[in-house]
């Protein structure tokens, strides 16, 4: 399998895990504060990522790069997830995933505006087709959940989406200098410390009293965050940010399929039509022929980068 195909698979895994984690978050959000859930999510994720790394740590970050990666970690893990958890406590998981499905469009617009990527009709059309499929599926629930009482929840979702798009672009320079695994560990550990401070300030418990089923959901959220975030950074180091984020369109499809299996959604033509449109949009937006190899790809002579290698 080529490195590009591996990156596409990693982005696909990330999109699916985001949708699955949203359903689990929705299942426990009424019994756990947004701050506590965010702390537990990334404390578990950081433990999973850091465990095999601490004994073999061989990368030295410059002070400037360390602060930058730490800041991105706080934005993506602390601020984004606090906003997302706030929205998930007030809106359906599928509706939240609908807003997140605009990540490819937001990312592409930011990338073009900052000169990081060239304008691409195939990617724009592909993202639009995918979003239209999700809108087709979730339009009734979105209309119900979009009342005035949820205006702050919608604002939180919009803010989380913009942060996610911006971070996907800002990580790129550091992923060129350092292996993805090390960037993941630094960003996540710093965010856990920040979230612990937020919990203490807001008197939110670090270890809440939950049932076995609820702890199972929390553990799944943490594990999916660890795997999904590493896959995201690994894909971002090899593909353009807008291509990688296009796979976030799979999140609402995953959320709806899971809620369909547990009886929250009936099987309908909307689900079938949305599934086809989303897959078509993702395929169309990620199969554009490029005249040259992506600048982030490794040199053929050097072979694929090792996520555990030491940086020069």
UniProtKB/TrEMBL annotation:
Alphabetic keyword roster: Membrane, Transmembrane, Transmembrane helix
Bilayer topology term: Multi-pass membrane protein
GO cellular component terms attached to this protein's record: membrane
Gene3D superfamilies membership: 1.10.3730.20
Amino acid composition bias (Pro residues), ranges on this chain: 302-312
Xref: SUPFAM superfamilies: Multidrug resistance efflux transporter EmrE (SSF103481)
Primary localization class, coarse: membrane
Ranges of residues in domain EamA: 7-138, 156-284
Keyword ATP-binding applies: no
Annotated region described as Disordered, given as residue ranges: 290-312
A Pfam entry, by short name: EamA
InterPro entries noted in UniProt: AA-Vitamin_Transporters (IPR050638), EamA_dom (IPR000620), EmrE-like (IPR037185)
Superkingdom of this protein's organism: Bacteria
Location(s) in or outside the cell: Membrane
Family listed: Belongs to the EamA transporter family.
Protein name listed in UniProt: EamA domain-containing protein
Source species: Achromobacter insolitus
């Amino acid at each position: 399998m080529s490195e590009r195909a591996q990156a596409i698979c990693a982005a696909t895994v990330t999109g699916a895990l985001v949708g699955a984690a949203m359903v689990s978050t929705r299942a426990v959000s009424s019994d756990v504060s947004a701050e506590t859930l965010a702390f537990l999510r990334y404390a578990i994720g950081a433990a999973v990522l850091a465990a095999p790394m601490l004994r073999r740590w061989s990368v030295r970050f410059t002070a400037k790069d360390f602060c930058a990666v730490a800041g991105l970690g706080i934005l993506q893990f602390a601020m984004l997830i606090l906003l997302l958890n706030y929205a998930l406590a007030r809106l359906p998981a599928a509706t939240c995933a609908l807003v997140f499905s605009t990540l490819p469009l937001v990312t592409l617009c930011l990338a073009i505006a900052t000169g990081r990527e060239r304008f691409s009709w195939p990617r724009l059309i592909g993202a639009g087709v995918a979003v239209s499929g999700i809108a087709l599926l979730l339009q009734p629930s979105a209309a119900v959940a979009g009342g005035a009482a949820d205006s702050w929840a919608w604002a939180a979702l919009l803010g989380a989406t913009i942060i996610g798009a911006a971070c996907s672009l800002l990580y790129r320079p550091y992923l060129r200098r350092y292996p993805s695994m090390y960037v993941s560990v630094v960003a996540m550990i710093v965010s856990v410390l920040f979230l612990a401070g937020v919990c203490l300030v807001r008197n939110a418990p670090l270890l809440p009293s939950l049932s076995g089923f609820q702890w199972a959901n929390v553990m799944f959220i943490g594990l999916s965050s660890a795997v999904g975030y590493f896959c995201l950074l690994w894909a971002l180091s090899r593909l353009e940010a807008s291509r990688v984020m296009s796979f976030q369109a799979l999140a609402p499809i995953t959320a709806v399929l899971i809620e369909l299996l547990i009886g929250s959604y009936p099987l309908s033509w909307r689900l079938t039509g949305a599934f086809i449109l989303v897959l078509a949009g993702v395929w169309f937006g990620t199969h554009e022929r490029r005249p040259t190899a992506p600048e982030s790809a490794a040199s053929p002579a050097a072979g694929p980068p090792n996520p555990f290698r030491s940086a020069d």
